[in-house]
Amino acid sequence: MLEAIARVIVWLGLGEVLMRLGLVPVPGPVTGLVLLYLDLLWHKTLPDDLGRLADRMLALFGLLFVPAGVGVVAHADVLRAEFVPILAAIIAGTVVTLLATITSLVLIRSWARRRKQPSVANLGEADLRA
Amino acid sequence: MPDPSAWASLPEQPILEVGITVLAFFAAVRLARWSGNNPFLNPTLIAIVLVVIVLNVTGITYTTYLRGAAFIQFLLAPTVVLLAVPLYRQTAVIRASGGLIAAALLVGLPTGILSAVGIAWALGASRTTLLSLAPKSVTTGIAVGISEAIGGVPALTAVLVISTGITGAIAGPAIQRWLRVEDDRVTGLAIGIAGHGIGTARALQISELAGAFAGLGMSLNGVLTGVLLPLAMRGL
């Protein structure tokens, strides 16, 4: 388990360093995610410990956002000035984004299915049903 | 002889703040499960409400709480890195779904920015607010950087990003049920693109496939928006 934790911390640390040096415009955790993914692809194996660590931590993913959410309540005064446009943009904007993405993907999927050429559209239908 | 006052400067153990957070989340998860994972009873949102109630009742200040709960927030960074694991497990499906993933980003990325900015603009929001809203669907760390680069207020953006994530985590599964979306890749991509990490946390409860595609949507949307939005703003 220690090895799995070390592996995560090393890629995360490298991601942080690359960002602070200005070599990548992305925060450390996102670079770390990409680096760990490439590392796994390179080695072509997922150690049991790393898999277990990921399952345990990701089951608690929602918990880790609770302090940030409480911070939103604490800083709610930054929203007061333009509360209505902001609230509308957040709620309606997010719902519109979800609806637009989901409906267009569903349409594209049924189009590919009608064409019976899932491999051409590269939509992975065959793999999903397998 | 070490200076004894050095001990006094050691930070207090944040057991109280961590404890409140963990217990609130535990209660929230129980409630969500009892409701059959009703999308509107999102565990993260309920836990936030419970913590706020406890803080108000006990008189613990937000500042004290947030200092103690920083320990929990620290775990966020390595956990985001661990999203590589579901991604790796779903590599075969991801490789075969390039077209679907590209289509999701082509629709979701601009819609996320334009819908928020458009709605706020129509309702008369100021230019600073519009610029702070633009990266709202992107994961916090990237969004704050974008906001700074295009002339928004990073602190406001952070608040907007978290609120967007909670909205996406609630609305995503609700829309999935309403439209009877069977393909978890579609639901995952949409939730990850619209609602970043908080959405991804919720998508992982639907299935590992949904979680992997949400993590993928979140990462690609974050990186692409981080590169494209400042460039597009410079062109305007």
What's the gist of this structure?
Chain A is an all-alpha fold and 130 residues long. Chain A has helices spanning 2-20, 28-43, 48-59, 61-64, 66-74, 77-80, 83-115, 118-121, 125-129.
Salient structural properties:
heterodimer; A: 130 residues; mainly alpha; 2 domains; 9 helices; 0% strand; B: 236 residues; 13 helices
Describe this structure in words.
The complex is a heterodimer of chains A (130) and B (236). With 130 residues, chain A is mainly α. Helices cover 82% and strands 0% of the residues of chain A. In chain A, α1 packs across α2 (28-43). Chain A is extended. Chain A starts with a helix and ends with a helix. The mean pLDDT of chain A is 87. Chain B contains 13 helices and no strands. In chain B, α8 (98-122) packs across α12, α8 (98-122) packs across α13 (208-235) and α10 (140-150) runs parallel beside α13. Chain B is globular and about 50 Å long.
Topology at a glance:
The complex is a heterodimer of chains A (130) and B (236).
Chain A: H1 2-20, H2 28-43, H3 48-59, H4 61-64, H5 66-74, H6 77-80, H7 83-115, H8 118-121, H9 125-129
Helix pairs in contact in A: 1-2
Chain B: H1 5-8, H2 15-34, H3 43-58, H4 62-74, H5 76-82, H6 84-89, H7 91-96, H8 98-122, H9 127-133, H10 140-150, H11 154-178, H12 184-206, H13 208-235
Structural class of chain B: mainly alpha
Strand content of chain A: under 5%
**What's the tally of helices of chain B?**
13
Estimated helix fraction of chain B: over 70%
Order of helices and strands of chain B: HHHHHHHHHHHHH
Largest interface: A-B, 82 and 115 residues
Please give the share of residues in helix of chain A. Answer: over 70%
Overall mean pLDDT score of chain B? Answer: 89
Major sheet size, sense and barrel closure of chain B:
none
CA-CA gap between termini of chain B: 64 Å
Multimeric organization = heterodimer
Number of strands of chain B: 0
